[in-house]
Amino acid sequence: MTAVSAPERTCIGCRRKRGRAELVRLTNEAGRVVPAHAGAPGRSAYLCPEQACLEAADKRRAFARAFRGPVVLDPAVHRAVARHTSDERR
Q1: What is the pLDDT, as a whole number, of residue 86?
Q2: d(CA 5, CA 12)
Q3: Residues 17 and 10 sit within 8 Å (Cβ to Cβ)
Q4: What is the DSSP letter of 11?
Q5: What angle, 0 to 180 degrees and rounded to 10, lies between the N-to-C axes of helices 75-89 and 51-59?
Q6: Which pLDDT does position 58 carry in this prediction?
Q7: CA-CA to 30 of 20 to 30 Å: which in 42, 55, 63, 65?
Q8: Phi/psi of residue 72, each to 5°?
Q9: SS (H, E, C) 18-38
Q10: CA gyration radius for the chain?
Q11: Beta carbons within 8 Å of 29's beta carbon, 6+ residues apart
Q12: What are the residue ranges spanned by the domains of the chain?
C-alpha cells in the first residue's frame, strides 16, 4: 500500500512548496487581500507564516499577479502571519 501525500502549495513569497496546512491561505475580497475563512470559494494564494515571506511577496508584487489584478493588502494579513508564527512558538 502506498502512502497518501498531503496537498502541497507554493508560497508566493519564497516560492517553496509546503503542505497546505503549513501555509496561510489568502483570498481577494473586493480588491482587498484577506486571510481566507474555511471553505472560502474562488481564487486563492498561499503564504508562509513568516514576515520575510510577506515582505518578499509584497516587494515582488506577487499579490497582484496571484489575483490577476490590482489589490490592496488588508492589515488582517499581517495579523494572521503574526498569529500563525506565535502559535508555532508555543
Answers
A1: 67
A2: 21
A3: yes
A4: B
A5: 150
A6: 95
A7: 55
A8: -115, 135
A9: EEHHHCEEEEEECCEEEECCC
A10: 13
A11: none
A12: 9-89
Q: What percent of the chain has pLDDT over 70?
A: 91
Q: What is the pLDDT of residues 46-71, one digit of tens each?
A: 999 999 999 999 999 999 999 999 99
- Three cell numbers written together for 30: 473586493
CATH of the domain spanning 9-89, picked from 3.30.70.260, 3.30.470.20, 3.30.2420.10, 3.30.1230.10: 3.30.1230.10
Those residues whose C-beta lies under 8 Å from the C-beta of residue 39, and which sit 6 or more positions away, are: none
Using CA atoms, how far apart are residues 19 and 29, in angstroms rounded to an integer?
24
Q: Which residues of the chain have pLDDT under 70?
A: 1-2, 85-90
What the block records as the C-alpha cell of 75 is 492589515
The whole-angstrom separation of Cα 52 and Cα 61 is 14
Place of cell 502559535: 87
